[in-house]
Amino acid sequence: KNRLIIAVDGPSGSGKSSVCRAVATQFGADYLDTGAMYRAATWYCLDQQVDLDDEDAVAVAVEELPLNISTDPEHQIICVDQTDVTEAIREPRISEAVSEVATNRKARQLLINAQRRIIDESGFIVAEGRDITTVVAPDAQVRVLLTASAEARLRRRGLQLEAASGAAETQEALRRQVLERDKKDSKASNFTEAADGVAVLDSSDLTFEETVNSLITRIDDVR
Ligand code: C5P
To answer: Which residues are within 8 A (CB) of 64 and not within 5 positions of it... i.e. 6 or more apart?
Structure first.
């Protein structure tokens, strides 16, 4: 079977989710947002009132996590048990706590295994996160690190939050949030430097379309 895996890593606000969804839609491929899995795991821990500082308790919760994630790039739905958490996992309380789960070694390994199963089941998938090019699917045919300057990422995050809630979060609070999460995340995986064989795609000065097209060109090259 002719399997195709597209692995994209990058920091928050690099635009990788929208870019990857658009690219997957374009090719009729599956799409996997691994960040959403860490977020859903975090939602579940909070829902179950698991103490996030208790490493073993978090690992147990993630082991029994009844996660259901769709791989349709146009209908991203993520459920924990019967609860649709698609919206809830984007709340600030989740963003603030998610690094705690992502740096839990056992929880991380469980989620990586689940990600590999989803990728293995697909014939053509665009998977994005922080460690897809290096850990989850280092054998991917296309491996890209999507970066953007801190300013560009803050600008996009600001727009995203505005679009989501109309919240009047100050630029300064946003800046602190984004940089703080980068710092915490970098403890779980190094996504600021490209590993061997991973191409860097810097989107700071690219439009959304230009970024999407650049990734499409790379995929066309290996198809
Ligand atoms: O991509 P997103 O910002 O939704 O990811 C949420 C969090 O999940 C990240 O801040 C990071 O802590 C964690 N994550 C990870 N490894 C991945 C994807 C996400 O540690 N492959």
So the answer is: none
ipTM here: 0.98
Q: How many CB atoms lie within 10 A of CB 83?
A: 15
- The answer to whether the annotation marks 10 as part of a ligand binding site is yes
Signed CA dihedral, 121, 126, 127, 132: sign only: positive
> What is the atom index within ligand 1 of the atom nearest the CA of 17?
1
User: What phi, psi does 115 have (nearest 5°)?
Assistant: -65, -40
Q: How far is CA 61 from CA 42, 118, 179, in A?
A: 9, 20, 28
Query: pLDDT per residue over 24-76, tens digit each?
Result: 999 999 999 999 999 999 999 999 999 999 999 999 999 999 999 999 999 99
Listed residue (175, 195, 217) closest to 12, CA to CA = 175
The pLDDT tens digits for 140-160 are 999 999 998 888 888 877 776
Q: Which residue's alpha carbon is nearest to atom 6 within ligand 1?
A: 35
